[in-house]
């Protein structure tokens, strides 16, 4: 019995497992030996903090979530850029990476902010050390997704304690995590209710700490297959869906996931991730447009990366006008700065379709309808 359970978990963790650990890389075994104790320690501390909230700050459960804005869409389609543009407006509050990983509770946030104040009075020795560690650990990801502990980040990381974060699939590629990428279609009502309850509590904690008068700004491409569930749970929410030419979004997303896969696996698993992500991205495009179209017009808008990248300021202001929001002068000035930067920006990213195993025939066959819908150049028209 124990042997059968052991093999089940090995097959879940390692897709190519065939009855022994010979197909498992030494790198993965060593990394898992380091990852799991650290992961469980952090989650245990976070769990204690979440429990303390009910004792120290019980009123957080009465916080009303008003008109949250969700930035969703196809991964690698400008969601991060749009998120950080919108975060320039003081009307919003959004989650920082440090809060998501090390302070999902109100208790922890007060603890760490108090410690940060003491550190500043002492000349910031801990702050400088933390910055040094951050650059060593996160600096290598700048070419894929530049981030820091103080930067706005995807709040689905706040669902790690309830296994609602798809990113965990890099560590435990089990069907339950893959199902999150088709939640509206394949998730049970019980699972949806569980995730929405946990997410609402997370948002209530965030607003309790940062200000109940604020609007939540959430950016999560992984929430795209949750659109219908989120819309039902937050009936006054607004949604901006982001799309981009598949010529860029598909290889970019596969490349970004492969970086994590190589770290956690140590073997060439390109085929496994390519197959899974091509199907997933096809669903993302389809579900995004279908779900947005089913909502009231004044609750949803569409952002096309090719326009957002060249005209960020005017694009954001168009969204504000569409939602009936007033853009303050200070926010407009900040957007003007981003407009000037956009005119000077040149992307250094280049992805080889052949290297990633994504041929032009696959792109045309899978995403042909996207090219036609938006008038995007097809892959054979793209110069290499």
UniProtKB/TrEMBL annotation:
The keyword Transmembrane applies. The chain crosses the membrane at residues 29-52, 156-178. It comes from Alcanivorax nanhaiticus. Keywords: Membrane, Transmembrane, Transmembrane helix. The keyword Repeat does not apply. It comes from the Bacteria. This is Sulfotransferase.
């Amino acid at each position: 019995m124990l042997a059968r359970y052991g093999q089940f978990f090995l097959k879940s963790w390692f897709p190519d497992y065939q009855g022994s650990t010979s197909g498992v890389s030494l790198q993965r075994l060593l990394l898992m030996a380091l990852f799991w104790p650290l992961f469980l320690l952090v989650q245990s501390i976070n769990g204690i903090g979440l429990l303390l909230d009910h004792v120290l700050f019980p009123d957080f459960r009465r916080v009303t979530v008003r008109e949250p804005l969700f930035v969703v869409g196809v991964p690698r389609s400008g969601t991060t850029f749009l998120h950080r543009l919108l975060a320039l407006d003081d009307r919003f509050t959004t989650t920082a990476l440090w809060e998501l990983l090390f302070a999902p509770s109100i208790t922890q946030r007060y603890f760490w902010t108090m410690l940060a104040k003491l550190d500043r009075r002492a000349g910031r020795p801990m702050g400088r050390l933390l910055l040094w560690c951050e650059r060593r650990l996160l600096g290598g990801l700048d070419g894929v997704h530049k981030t820091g502990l103080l930067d706005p980040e995807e709040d689905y990381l706040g669902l790690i304690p309830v296994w609602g974060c798809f990113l965990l699939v890099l560590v435990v590629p089990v069907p339950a995590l893959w199902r999150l990428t088709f939640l509206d279609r394949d998730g049970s009502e019980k699972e949806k209710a569980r995730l929405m309850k946990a997410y609402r509590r997370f948002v209530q904690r965030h607003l309790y700490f940062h200000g109940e008068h604020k609007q939540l700004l959430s950016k999560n491409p992984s929430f795209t297959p949750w659109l219908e569930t989120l819309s039902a749970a937050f009936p006054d929410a607004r949604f901006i869906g982001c799309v981009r030419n598949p010529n860029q979004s598909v290889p970019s997303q596969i490349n970004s996931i492969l970086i994590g896969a190589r770290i956690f696996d140590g073997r060439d698993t390109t085929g496994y991730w390519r197959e899974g992500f091509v199907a997933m991205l096809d669903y993302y495009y389809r579900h995004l447009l279908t779900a947005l179209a089913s909502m009231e017009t004044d609750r949803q808008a569409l952002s096309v990366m090719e326009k957002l990248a060249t005209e960020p300021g005017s694009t954001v202001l168009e969204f504000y006008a569409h939602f009936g929001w007033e853009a303050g002068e200070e926010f407009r000035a900040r957007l003007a700065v981003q407009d000037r930067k956009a005119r000077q920006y040149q992307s250094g990213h280049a992805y080889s379709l052949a290297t990633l195993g994504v041929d032009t025939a696959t792109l045309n066959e899978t995403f042909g309808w996207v090219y036609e819908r938006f008038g995007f150049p097809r892959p054979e028209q793209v110069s290499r």
